[in-house]
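Hi,

Apologies if this is the wrong queue. I'm a grad student, and the batch job for Homoserine O-acetyltransferase from Bacillus kandeliae produced an output file that my downstream script rejects. I'm not sure whether the problem is my script or the file. Here is the sequence I used:
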Amino acid sequence: MPINIPRQLPATEILEKENIFVMDVDRAHSQDIRPLNILILNLMPEKEKTEAQLLRLLGNTPLQVNVSFLYTATHESKNVSKSHLEQFYTTFEEVKHRRIDGMIITGAPVELMEFEDVNYWKELEGIMDWAKTNVTSSLHICWGAQASLYHHFGIGKFELPKKCSGIYKHTVIEPTVKLLRGFDDEFYAPVSRYTDVEVEAILAHEELMLLSSSEEAGPFLIMSKDEKQIMITGHLEYDVHTLAEEYSRDVAKGIEIDMPKNYFPDNNPTKKPVNKWRSHAHLLFSNWLNYYVYQETPYEWE
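Support response: The file is valid. Your script probably expects a header line. Output copied below for reference.
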């Protein structure tokens, strides 16, 4: 089954060219199916790229999915047009009365700031608190994962000596967990961050499970034991060129930055990177939608 998104959304054309099944509202209403309602709080600056990346993964399952996008009212986005937000996004005030099957909170380029110094932190805390009773399962990505660990579980982040960027091998620690069904014992995933969380703090927390980790890049997949909060410290949703674009951007800004590790063939930035994580990205999002959203959410919210 496809994702149901507005026909005018720029990501629609990208996905259709990739043969991702996209359904418009009229077709969706003709099917006697209870679709899953997924809310995406998109905190990334280049929102249209993130939309396409996440919709690509959400649209590759047998489930019909209605997707809504949320932005923070307390922060003015500088890299997306106001008309795009007005046409395709909504605010928390407009959705807080609803019950949502699944929610995704993306990363954000604010990780070197203290959480409380982020200008939309209070709003984000309200959204995360609301999700505990109004959302079946929440998926948090990169800084969104760190925000969840800090807000829900009191685990802070620490700054790394330099940016951790590249494609890293991760080891599955809990192979029987439904989220990792079909995963290889080892898998690759993109990481792009300046901060990290302590493995020991996760392992010591009675409400958390560490599902996978990397010797080089640290903890990767973390889940609350009630299965309502899933944290991904990297970016399985990234396109093959995303790390290259970030690297070129930082170099152009004069930032002293290392080349993404294990990414460019022969460590030559003129060579096209190879995608080593696509299948596991699709598998993780499929498992999340099936086992933690579809199988757990009521047909009719009371």
